[in-house]
Design brief:
14 helices; mainly alpha; two-stranded antiparallel sheet; Growth Hormone, Chain: A; globular; single chain
Length: 447
């Protein structure tokens, strides 16, 4: 039996896609996620089109790193404090009002593009949209255990975040398609931002269909008022970190592993962007470069979907740690085999496989964190998780900018990525074995 948000009991549905889709609350949360991340995909394409693929600009890896730093690092500072609010504010309201705010900000961003506003003003508006995005994604992950039974978490984590990621990729595909139908320029970029804003409005309305208290967190009588909680944000964040380090060693190791995988993925993303713009296509044909990047993103989305299909089966046979180790180890072989040719078809094949292993790693890490972290800390921990993602991605872009030529062709970078994957796989396998041994010593009956 499982306890619902209103305190009643119910028999959990089977831990399958069909079983989860029979749960009304899970369906509604999934709908809000899919619409929200579909909007993100369109919005991100508008950024890429304006910053990297503008016909009048010759973008470099350093330009990409600068944009990512502007867009992500400020939120890396404020993100953990948002976790304190996630553990107090009703998560349904976060999803509803956050997407509603992004609707308004998206319209404002499109207006700035049409008006020819300075770049810094455009980036400031886009920064707010991105900051809310990270906040909403952390709330979605923290809310998932409120709508499924514990035995359904692995399957739910295979389905929900993965479908969200696939939706983001589909949004990117929609953005690429719309961009191809319009002459490149500010008007096309503004049109894409407006489409994203309308989709954010749809996500807000989808979140509004859920009961206000459905997604938690539980309200405790002795919990400080909101204004007092904001003043205690630093201390409470420290408490979340202490809980994570002291009581959740498996979660710490999973977060370290998925951060390393995110770093590698970030490096390869910059490589693919540069190859798409300057090697696979005529550098003056920005539309063709954007289309090639869209193909790579689409194949990665297929990989994300495949990871959702195979991860539940793989975790039942290999365990969470075993499947995560396999996902970290596989790129050691296929990244050099496919990437060192710097040719289009092998590169697209690598994008597909990277989608599988990157999402497989995240599915395992999400589940480990959700199983290991108590509900009252979960919002803070997922906010920290999100910050690690952002910092790893920006660090990857900065490191790549130092060594990657404009063409995107670098044997050193590809070999370095394979080495980082190898170290991450070895270190995580060792740490997971120690965690399993410690758990068996504490509970000899543990299988």
């Amino acid at each position: 039996m499982a306890i619902t948000a209103n305190g009643s009991t119910r028999t959990p549905s089977p831990a399958t896609l069909a079983g989860l889709l029979r749960l009304r609350d899970f369906r509604r949360l999934l709908t809000a996620r899919v619409l929200s991340q579909l909007s993100d995909g369109v919005f991100q394409v508008s950024l890429a089109a304006y910053v990297v693929f503008s016909p009048e600009k010759q973008s470099s890896p350093a330009d990409i790193a600068s944009v990512l730093a502007v867009m992500l690092l400020p939120f890396s500072v404020i993100g953990p404090f948002a976790g304190v609010l996630l553990d107090r504010w009703r998560r349904r309201q976060v999803l509803y009002l956050g997407n509603l705010a992004r609707f308004g900000l998206g319209l404002a961003t499109g207006g700035l593009l049409l008006a020819g506003a300075p770049d810094w003003l455009y980036f400031a508006a886009a920064l707010l949209v991105t900051a809310l995005n990270r906040f909403i994604l952390a709330g979605l992950s923290a809310a998932l255990p409120r709508v499924v039974a514990p035995t359904q978490l692995v399957t739910a984590n295979a389905i929900s975040p993965t479908l969200g990621t696939v939706a983001a990729a589909c949004g990117g595909g929609l953005g690429f398609l719309l961009h191809q139908l319009m002459p490149p320029g500010r008007q096309a970029d503004a049109a894409l931002v407006t489409v994203a804003a309308l989709l954010y409005l749809c996500a807000a309305l989808a979140a509004r269909r859920m009961a206000p208290d459905l997604l938690g967190p539980e309200q405790h009588p002795d919990r400080p008022a909101l204004h007092e909680a904001i003043g205690q944000a630093t201390r409470e964040l420290s408490a979340g970190v202490r809980h994570l380090v002291r009581d959740c060693r498996p979660a710490v190791h999973a977060l370290a592993a998925v951060t390393a995988a995110r770093f590698c993925y970030g490096v390869l993303i910059v490589v693919v962007v540069m190859l798409s713009r300057y090697t696979f296509n005529d550098p003056s044909d920005s539309a063709a470069g954007l289309a090639t990047l869209g193909q790579a993103v689409g194949l990665s989305a297929v990989g994300f979907f495949l990871a959702a299909v195979v991860s539940p089966w793989c975790t039942r046979r290999l365990g969470l740690a075993g499947w995560m180790t396999a996902c970290l180890a596989a790129p050691v072989l296929f990244v050099p085999a496919l990437g060192l040719s710097f040719a289009l078809v092998p590169g697209l094949a690598a994008a597909l496989l990277l989608g599988v292993v990157t999402q497989g790693t995240k599915i395992c890490a999400d589940t480990v964190v959700q199983e290991s972290v108590e509900d009252e800390y979960r919002g803070r921990v997922f906010a920290i998780y999100d910050v690690l993602f952002n910092v790893a991605f920006v660090a990857a872009a900065v490191v790549t900018a130092l060594v990657l030529p404009l063409s995107g062709r670098s044997t050193l970078v590809v070999a370095g990525v394979a080495l980082v994957y190898a170290l991450a796989a070895a270190l995580y396998a060792r740490a997971a074995h120690r965690d399993r041994s410690a758990a068996n010593r504490q509970d000899p009956q543990r299988p």
